[in-house]
Amino acid sequence: MTDQGDTTSAVPAAAPSGAAAVFGDRMPAAIRFVEILADTGVTHGLIGPREVPRLWERHVLNCAVIEDAFPQGAKLIDVGSGAGLPGVALAIARPDLDIHLVEPMQRRTDWLTTTVTNLGLDNVTVHRGRAEEFVGVLSAPWLTARAVARIAKLARWCVPLLDGRGTVVAMKGRSAQEELEADRRELNKLGLVEAAITSHGSTVLDEPTLTLDLTFQPKTRVAKGKKKR
Asked: Which residue range(s) make up the domain with 200?
């Protein structure tokens, strides 16, 4: 739920020293993104006013540090992109990535489209709709999501969008291990072949970002009348 409290004193903190190490010469775009989040991100209900002073540490930098999970030039889908976290933050930090933001709400996709244009991000495409609506239309070897759903439910939405064997990099924080253990049986049914919990940004964040990295191999269907050997 979005905090609708007083916004008069909501001012973003200065960029932390570690931000430059992540964004490099793209820092002006990162700063501009934080300014947009603090302004229209709040008025459009995407960011709570109380989050504004900690936009860098808790949101933008927190998301950008997972850029080390993706190989050079990777195609990536951000499911339930919302305020562009992590998708837009990743697009700024990694202009080589081909990023697709999937978001069902019209007002959010309108905001994302305007924000992407204002930031001059030519490596981002915005799609309106639910993940399941893009099965057979949009696919990639890498998917990511932040605060969307428990991992089993998220995987059910994401696995059909994987381009062959692929990996879901889910931002899960401290709940990662518990969710993996509780939902592993269902994940196995979806074709899970590898699972790891990865820490990101330990040199630039007081509390590193944790991701649950799940690699799936789609199960091949056997044609009628043929048997597996």
From this structure: 19-216
